[in-house]
Amino acid sequence: MDSSADPRLADLHARIADSRDALIALTQDLIRIPTLNPPGENYGAICEYLDRRLGAAGFDTHLIRAHDTPGDCDRYPRWNIVARRDGRRAGDCVHFNSHTDVVDVGLGWTRDPFGGELVDGRIYGRGACDMKGGLAASIIAAECFIAAFPDFSGAIEISGTADEESGGYGGVAYLAKQGYFSPRKVQHVIIPEPLNKDRVCLGHRGGWWAEIETFGEIAHGSMPFLGDCAVRHMGAVLNAFEADLFPAMAQRRTDMPVVPEGARSSTMNINSIHGGQAEKLADSTALPSHCVPDSCRIVIDRRFLVEEPLDQVRGEVRGILDGLAESRPNFEYALRELNHVLPSMTDRNAPVAATVARAIERVMGQPAEFVASPGTYDQKHIDRIGKLKNCVAYGPGILELAHKPDEWIGVDDMMDSVTVMALSLVDLLSPAQT
Ligand SMILES: [Zn+2]
What we know:
With about 425 residues, the protein is α/β, with parallel strands linked by helices. It has ten helices and 16 strands. A hairpin with a 2-residue loop joins β4 (about 120) and β5 (about 120-125). α1 (about 5-20) packs across α4 (about 130-150), α1 (about 5-20) packs antiparallel against α10 (about 410-430) and α2 crosses α4. It binds zinc ion (ZN).
């Protein structure tokens, strides 16, 4: 539409400018509800807060508990909220999905992690950037749009969902199974994760998590030749990974625009290693007994590219282990898959991606950058379970601040994102009337 002549657009910009204090207050309120995951605290409280807020803005709200999902119990119920506001005419539905959970605070903070302090244009707190600032921006954007374009067509949905930081099974995955992300109901999804205000995130790499165990035989530590050391067998596994797997992975490059640059190759993290006796308790003064370890376990976190089939990823690791079983005396292993997530990638010409990119260019004065995320987020469930492909992540907040001490979100960045989100709504829900 040629919006420059539309007086409603000037009204929209004025309303957004007037909403700065409301945006700050909303972000602070959300940060002050400590929704730590694990264990999954205060999901009910944050959903009730959003229920009041969105109900007052004319949204129909539904609170949905994800019964029998991981971690759901009466002490830590997995509450989610889906709020919907219908327009005056039929049309597409634009859905903003934000997770309400935040990760552990960790050490090294100089600010109150749940204080929501505003200092020099930054709001501090756990979840400020990932992603309560994005949730607040989407609510303010929707409110300003509805006020300036009361005759919009279609519908706006805003959801606040649980457990994204632990896989999203009690949040978006559960809602997708209930049909909340069916393409008949929802046509465009924007996830306001902190990917920076000038970037559209099209998707993410895949992940494969597995535990590998090597076996040995316990014996007296003074006569290790009478036993068989499981830790040395695991050393051989790690050597083989260093010699063969890591160099091979580093060679592979994806066409997905993954950021940062290092994540454009396949990667693997050795997440943990445990062998031999259990670690002693912190307050114990006991000395270890002298034993040859009969078990050693590692957990691997393998991130793979859209070009790599999952079976190839699995087969590559199993091939190395089988090779050791043939070449190394007494080598026995077990491989247990813990979880996997397939890559997800929305086409950059998909309607929601192109619309958000256009809005970014209008607000920032330069073309949007298309990126993909090194780690997974809830897009996987919207794609695989919901079968909805028209989904991107777009939100304020600097990706590198997520999960860090003194996490913050910039108010100016949030204001720019509010404008981008609101202009996206204009394009998707208010086609030119004249
Ligand atoms: Zn997040």
